[in-house]
Amino acid sequence: MGMKRYEIVRWVMGPLKTNCYMIVSGGEAIVLDVGFPREALEIADFILSRGLKVKMFIATHGHFDHVMGFNALRRRLKIHIPLLIHLNDIELLSRAGEALRKYFGIELAPPKPDQTLDGGEEVSVGDLTFKVIHVPGHTMGSIALYSEEGLLFTGDTLFKRYVGRCDFPESNCRLLGDSIRRLFQLPLETKVYPGHMEETTLEEEFLLNPYVKSVLENW
To answer: CATH no. for residue 165?
Structure first.
């Protein structure tokens, strides 16, 4: 049996229990969705202890609980690692500090993006390549990352037995339905790593997620 070509490490961050993921392969890493600063320090210590080269940070969308720990992580690592986010969530990212203050009374400046995504790009880490899929709905700039290794990081678009909220001003329920349908064109055995809650598979959600069933039946 061959060695696994990658490792996925998860941290559950802050009061909203946001999932931050690190994808590790070949001594390199990509970090997704660093939501709060306290746990960001644990992530930095993990990176330093393993001697990993972090290629990039990626935000699956611009909500504060997915982005407000990136600055703390950069400071601890003492290196500027580029942050990538979809161009349609740039403005939402710029308001993430206001949202954090409103909900938790914490004053922090939001991170600034270094590169924008449009959907369709490929990002690589070690032996793995991920395709960026634009999945608007929860926010207009939500993305998912898919690898033919059978891995799918869905942010807040698809959860275990649930889908992303689409009742925010920056949301669109019709587009969320379109995005869910797009994700279910991928192989059903694909493993899903969502922005909150536990991991699942597309097959499980196809069979057991009532929201997904409703969306697919009305296709």
So the answer is: 3.60.15.10
